Amino acid sequence: MQKRISVIIGAYNAEPFIQRCVDSIVQQEQFPMDDLEIILCNDGSEDNTLAVMQEYQRQYPGVVSVDTHENIKPAKTKNRAIEMATGKYIIFLDADDWLERDFCNRFYIEIERSGADVVFGGYKRVSQTGDVLKVATPSLCEYAKYMFVVSTMRIHRREHMMKHAIKFTESTYGEDILFSVKQIAAGAVFKPILYAGYNYLYNTDSITNTTQKGFDEANLKTVKNLLEQIIKIGEPLKNEPSFQYYLVRTVVFNLLYSGRNSSSQQFIVAYKQLFSLLNLRVPEMQYTMIAPKGETLSVRFIIFLFLLFRRLRVVHLFSKVYCR
Which residues neighbour 82 within 8 Å (Cβ) at sequence distance 6 or greater? Predict the structure, then answer.
């Protein structure tokens, strides 16, 4: 009999976190354990991650399975698990994060009720000492699917993923973004809910927090490659105002994030190359300063201000103040 939900967890050297992560699934409330398929993927860990996973497999036979292999990076690891998954729906969970105990029940009820292909909620950003740094939930609007471009914090209809061959792109940066854009371009029906049941650890050693700090040649190449792939995957969407705004949002936020630790000269080089890439790949681009309905006030202000600086040709002066 088909399981209702497959939960996929990829892990590399996650010994300090993996027990809390898996416990948050096996201790789900109001959702039958027998309706869960938990796939633990050991991506060539060099610590005791595999041993911890195998202990869960021993404790929960028929529920927990372990896939172990040499280090092949997150995208390939999750793609292997997608092939293994048999559940009607799929949930992705990072090994250093954890779920609230009503997560599976809340998302299962909503995706069954709505008939959506993807139901997504928000998250709590939690420090390593347990302090909640931020709570975020998506807006209840169509544009919200561009505000939370991740594979976690949501439940996916596996049938839609299989039909449209939606898998993770092998990349060291932005594989979650590309996965989400693939779903949007494939016409997935998205349903946001006002629920923050995903606990997202602020891990200073994670890939997210150890890449793209500064615009050296390698990092600029990485950002340009990501932007190229987003545009290529989003080809069916490129004339839609929401997608165009998302592209501008992506460029501006990468400039601001990496530019903070760059020189003014590096910032301007990145600025020119990224906007030139947008103009080349999306000739119909409309640099509207009006954000789509649902965008947060802070993001609206940031994008408006940056595009205003661009229109007034004072980005160079801005970089003198903003960069290191």
Answer: 8, 90, 161, 167
